[in-house]
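Key idea: predict the complex, not the pieces.
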Amino acid sequence: MDMRVKDLCVARGGVALLEGVSFTLAPGQALILRGPNGSGKTTLLRCLAGLQDPRGGEIGFDRELAAYGAHADGLKAQMSVTENLTFWAAVHGLSDIAPALAAFDLEALRDRQAGMLSAGQKRRLGLARMMVTGRALWLLDEPTVSLDAASVALFAEAVRAHLAGGGMAVIATHIDLGLPEAAVLDLGPLKARAEMDDFDDAFGGAFL
Amino acid sequence: MRSLWEYANPKKFIETSQRVLPAVTWASVACLVVGLIWGFFFTPEDYRQGSTVKIIYLHVPSALMAINAWFMMLLASLIWLIRRHHVSALAARAAAPIGAVMTMIALATGAIWGQPMWGTWWVWDPRLTSFLILFLFYLGYIALWAAVEDDDTAADLTSILCIVGSVFAVLSRYAVNFWNQGLHQGASVMRAGALAGDTEERVSNVFALPLFVCIAGFVLLFVALVLLRTQTEIRARRMRALVARERRG
Amino acid sequence: MIALLRRDLTLALRAGGGFGLGLAFYLILVALVAFGVGPEGALLARIAPGILWVGALLACLLSLDRIFALDREDGSLELLATAPLPLEGIVTMKALAHWITTGLPLVVAAPLLGLMLNLPGPGFAWLFVSLLIGTPALSVLGTFGAALTVGLKRGGLLLSLIVLPLYVPTLIFGAEVARRGAEGLAVQTPLLLLAGITCGTLALLPFASAAVLRVNLR
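Result:
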């Protein structure tokens, strides 16, 4: 199933950030979002994940098929790596976490408390979480923060495997992920021109 | 056919309310002056309660408005949740402190009235107690508005709190009734006999007429204050929008 | 959803303080009341049902802000919201976990503290029953308050200000059951009303909690 996004406009705190965001993603494809800080990458991903409503435009995609990977990994420091992953798998109705552990080289750490992991190891665990959601579309926000080169390669490998299985990914990142086949969407030119906030917008600009 | 909802446009609202406001204000002042002077100086003293009964001209209208202000907020909250009219949310926000003050006046005048009648400033009478609870609901509502930064988020949260709060305010009313049967005289103003001049249990005619004038005065005062405060809220909101635009531009 | 409940219970056990803190607070509160009003047995016996109910309510309040705050900080709340679980179910499970970790220990401890306050003999059973029926409503209402204030810095005080008035009907009927029980009167009316309030809040409040959570996650 294709993911179609048409003429999307997203806002944060009542102020429009991006407008005219359009793209189509077919199974097996990835899209990389680029843009300076504060350009609205996170807001766009949150809209795609269904956490907030876009101000305008269409998202032609079932949000139930999307898994969101935010800055924060959603890990509990008092639980082990296995327990954390098992929990997220259970929430998504799955139980097999072995492939995720293997893909991100976490097997040796499986009984370690998440609170004892290094920043990079936590990040790997957070990314492994994407695999146990069993969802077709990965929405990833700066996934490679605090990863070393070897881990970035692991991540690229996991994304490639996900795409090969008919999955899709939208990734906001600044670095080169080693995914040359992925399309790139530069958000810079899509900065919203409209300078109204929602309040004014609700009255067709008649208010200001 | 003009729709009522066009007044939900802030510009239209400010224009219209500007025009209405002076009339409402003066009518309110006139009603209050006439009603209070009539009530305080030109009504006989009650055979049991003496001159203390005259506090009724402040107590009953403020108590009435304390409840009606919450109803107005509930209505405005529902309109915001269903139709997303910003003016409605701001009107609810504007009404809350007025309602809280009305509740405070009702409580204070109740205590002052109760002192000579019951021999104590405060009794845990169901009515007084439920007004105290209503006051707490007002405080929570106002505090939530103040605490949330984003305006639309605050409007959504307070609207839902208003609805849940309404249910629990009513529940509390009955719970408190159950908890203590009370000394308070029943709601005696609005019964049919009031105007017919039945003096036994009801507030009699001589007292009732100035009381109705006072109630009208309080209602008009409430309307005037809500209009004024809503205008202020809209303008404050507009300032924030302009500042935001300047920063981006 | 069971996984969520199990995780919350595990965390409460491992992080410590989940079970213990509320209980310790309850004990201190009861002791303070005794210090405040004096050791006279007859007086303590008379006020015991009310004190034990108010104490349970305040101890319950103490841990409310943790219901969502921790999940919000580490990002799990957002991830849960995008998971296939309905948000209404998530808030119900959160309330249930809060009740098991906070409410239930209080219910069990209340009769013991009743001994300290010289609670009359027939009161113990009714105190236990009234708390058992009433505390779930406290947890559900508290979850609503926690969902309202989850995004706020220093939301703790505001949370109390919002939640405590909502607790009034539950407290009145609950304490009334305990009081009438202690005095050997018929408890049926307040008991049914208490059960009614609990059922009503259990049925309806999760929708309000989920709605405000959705707004706060936006």
